[in-house]
Amino acid sequence: MEITDHVENILKGVNKFGKYQIFAYLSLGFVYMFNIFDLGYIFIARDAKYRCFIPECEADSRSVYNPEWLKDFVPFKGGSPDSCHRYAMMNNTCSVTDISRNETQACEQFVYQTHDITIVHDFGIHCEENVWKLTIVGTVSMCGELVGLSYSGFISDRYGRKTILIAGVLLSTLCGILKSLSVSYTMYVIMEFLDPALGAGMYNAAFILAMEFVAPKHRNFANTVICCLVASSQCILALTAWLTTSWRIMLRILYIPGFIAITFFWTIPESIRWLLSKNKIEEIQIIVSRLQGKETLSENTTLLTFFHSYAEKRPIVTEKQSETFIDAVKSRILLLRLIHCAFTWICCTFLYFGLTMNSVTLSEDVYSSFILSALVEIPGYLIYYYGNLKIGRRLFLSITFISAGVSCLAVGFIPKDLHWLKLTLYLVGKCSATISYTVIYVYTTEMFPTTCRHSTLSVCSMLGRFGSMVAPQIPFMARMYEILPLILFAIIGSTSGTLALLFPETLNTKLPETIQEAIDIGKNQKRNI
Q: Is 160 left (phi over 0), alpha (psi -120 to 50) or beta?
């Protein structure tokens, strides 16, 4: 029996979920939740409602946002006061007779609708000419992820999943705390970039560990649990922003717990398959024995004998002999599969992040809108869990992509007075995009070999960030043509959904350990890339 088959059988035979597994999954669960906190810029860099402070009529800038007398001193647009202009005053008195309605002047101070403090307040980012400073924050953050994912996979495949995971959480924690101490807009943007640039590898490493840590029949369930934790963390993010009036306090509450990652040296095991690819048999023995509830290896004579026998017979694998990412893409089949995966990731991230960021526009209450958008992901994960077992990865990915596109397109053609219907279809689109995002994560890990699994996942995720980099600019697209973003969602969803049918099916297949095993996936299927 091959050692890879033996490891699969060992994982299948572990029926007891002991303390070792509990601590490991609690630790990985923390990582999944912590990783989502870099989306905090959705609340930190959101535009605020404000109007001119009228010093002639008000004592301080904490006045009521829209008092009855304001319409005499400030131009109104669509029932709301102009954000950046007021009528010119001939004298410095609070008198309607001194107002020149034919002339306006720029605001010097502002009164805000709410008492929430964002970077708009702290760094003075007001008016139309400065709106780009807010929308660019999301793009900068995604650029940071792009940089982080460009190297994290290769470090993970070389030094281990556990190494990049712990380093990522701790570095992200430091960046988050420094971000909360920003003294200028420039410093804030730099830290917003460094946070994901240094910590982007943590989620992929945790995801791969969770997938490699369980038997094939349990991977679907493990992935569903992971995704529900992600949805829960989005709710925690929104609730924290809701309960804290200052973005600085919010960041400290979210990031300081990241120092818990120091304990992961003892609570999270290294990937068995990664250790196997590096011929670190002794470490595999220790982990598998703990999985089986054995305090020492001597308690499992069969396992000990097998590993010692393998260790004596195994060849010494050198750097040159070990299969690498470069070796994998030399295969035409795997190269085309990688390109296809990367394109699918770009489409998926644009849909998912575009709908997530746009959710704060569903109503005046940005927090409840965001929470509603996050909660609708949980039914999506449950649909994924049961549907993926029946339908398979390929068809399920295709159906959900097309469903997301069609739902979003329909939203643009429904009358505004049917708000409940527009909201329902929007949430259907978000739910479908969530399912697609879930499927593509599992799918990518199942189509490439162990020796470069994290590298290929990171490459796809990295290139996918081009889609999420465009997503924050959706408000600008809507200004050009209101339903343009929805049309783009429809085109991208239908195109990627159709092309998804060209992937090989991987449901209930063993994770490929070598390049040849990855090439052989789905060879008996009619459609295979």
A: left
